[in-house]
Amino acid sequence: MGDSATVSVVPEGALAYGMQLPVQALSVRVSMPWEQDATVDDLVRVAQAADDAGFLYVAVCHHVAIPPEPAEMMSTQWFDPIATLGFLAAHTTRTRLMTNVFIAAYQPALGTAKAFATLDRLSNGRAIVGIGAGHVEGEFDALGVSFSGRGAITDDALATIKAALTDEWTDTTPAGRVGQRPRPVQQPHPPIWIGGSGKPALRRVATMADGWIPQATPLDQMPADIATILRERDSVRPGAVPEIGYHLVAHVGEPSWELPKGVMHGSADRIAEFANKRLGAIGVSHLQVRLFARDAQEHCDQIAAFGAEVGPQTRPHRTFLNISGAKDPEWRSSRCGTTSGPRASRPSRRRRSTRPRSSSSRGPTSTGSTRSCFRSTTASTTAGCPPRSRWPPRFSPARAGRA
Predict the structure, then answer these.
(1) What is the spatial distance between Cα 190 and Cα 120, in angstroms, rounded to a whole number?
(2) How do beta strands 127-132 and 96-99 pair?
(3) Are 387 and 261 in contact (CB under 8 A)?
(4) Paired sense of beta strands 335-336 and 57-60, if any
(5) d(Cα 151, Cα 146) in Å, to the nearest integer?
(6) Tens of pLDDT, residues 11-66
(7) Residues in contact with 390: Cβ distance below 8 Å, sequence separation at least 6, in sequence order
(8) CA 198 to chain centre
């Protein structure tokens, strides 16, 4: 049975947006040509541009040792995620720091909890704990971890990580009761988001997580996956409100160079309309934006344009699939709360905010007037969703494992 409370960091009444940072991982699936010769200074510039532009988070990936065959596509450059985010915490002030995703099976769960608690303390309450099961079998072999058993390992690790981030003392280990400090700033714990697209990942979102980071899920599959999350959620922790994410690959404006197929481009109005009608309208509350550019400066310019021109127009509609068997095929939007103020707009008392204990202005805040609810509303099937071919293989997000 999962805890019915979920930790919210997405601002009220907003369709939030964040980004996976360039340079730190050079997989040909997601990196751009300019990143091959980029520097750590370029990484910092991009993170600071996202910080200035109001991005909810910046994210980094996690791999440890890539075997030769997958390295042809994935490369071997993967910065350590906790070290990188700790470094970037000193160069940013507001944007949250997320792992997309941290592979829980690669190290003891208490070590993972310690790392994220320390990151949250050093960043004044800005960590987002993105967790995944992993998908590179040879990497598991190199680390001496069972690939076939990674699902069960991940489930056990999540329980321990959440317990250790919530309370100083935990008895989830064979050795009995143990304690950890420093404690995270965010209470009751930093938000835990699950990455992945398989049924086990959806189950983890529903039963124990605060959010979902889809990995290469076709847009026309999203309504069914959201329905799966809600159906499972209703059976184990009714009232939980996990944040639903999706990828948006875009370029603000009309470029003078050829973009890869499937990249949304054009006016800010056009991009915002797509985000609202095709993503916000199916229950997406945060976008992981991938902005195409030819160098670090253009990337920073794109981030600034998105934050100034697209972001203010995005809105969540919180429309969800009918999971009770009703036959009405139409989309219906369901909102809860119309009164101004942070408390009036809460969808449930079981949803928790992670306001830092410290009153420092450096900590991220969550403001707004309304938030929509997760309710059992009706939905169409996949009509109007872009085909899977919108995601060209070279630039599609890396597919996560199914464990």
Answers:
(1) 7
(2) parallel
(3) no
(4) unpaired
(5) 10
(6) 877 899 999 999 999 999 889 999 999 999 999 999 999 999 999 999 999 999 99
(7) 219, 261, 262
(8) 16
Asked whether the beta carbons of 188 and 166 are under 8 A apart, the reply is yes
Q: Is the CA virtual torsion 136, 77, 290, 161 positive or negative?
A: positive
Q: Is residue 90 part of a domain?
A: yes
State how far the alpha carbon of 261 is from the alpha carbons of 27, 54, 68, 249, 292, in Å: 18, 28, 29, 10, 12
Closest CA to 283 of 157, 368, 209, 377: 377
Q: Are 317 and 276 in contact (CB under 8 A)?
A: yes
* Residue 375: Cβ within 10 Å count: 17
Tokens of 60: 């980094």
Output b/e per residue, 266-275; b: 16+ Cβ within 10 A: eebeebbebb
* Distance of alpha carbon 276 from alpha carbon 317, whole angstroms: 7
Contacts of 175 (CB under 8 A, 6+ apart): none
For residues 323-345, one letter each, b for 16 or more C-beta atoms within 10 angstroms of the residue's C-beta and e for the rest, the string is beeeeeeebeebbbbeeeebeeb
DSSP codes of every residue in 297-354: HHHHHHHHHIIIIIGGG----------S-----S----EE--SSSTTTT-S-TTEEE-
Please state the domain count of the chain: 1
Residue 401 forms part of a structural domain: no
pTM: 0.81
> Which of 92, 96, 99 has the alpha carbon at shortest distance from 24?
99
- The answer as to whether 254 is a domain residue is yes
402: in domain: no
pLDDT tens for each residue of 230-280: 999 999 999 899 999 999 999 999 999 999 999 999 999 999 999 999 999
Q: Give me the CATH number covering residue 124.
A: 3.20.20.30
The domain containing residue 370 runs over which residues?
6-395
Tokens of 168: 């100083």
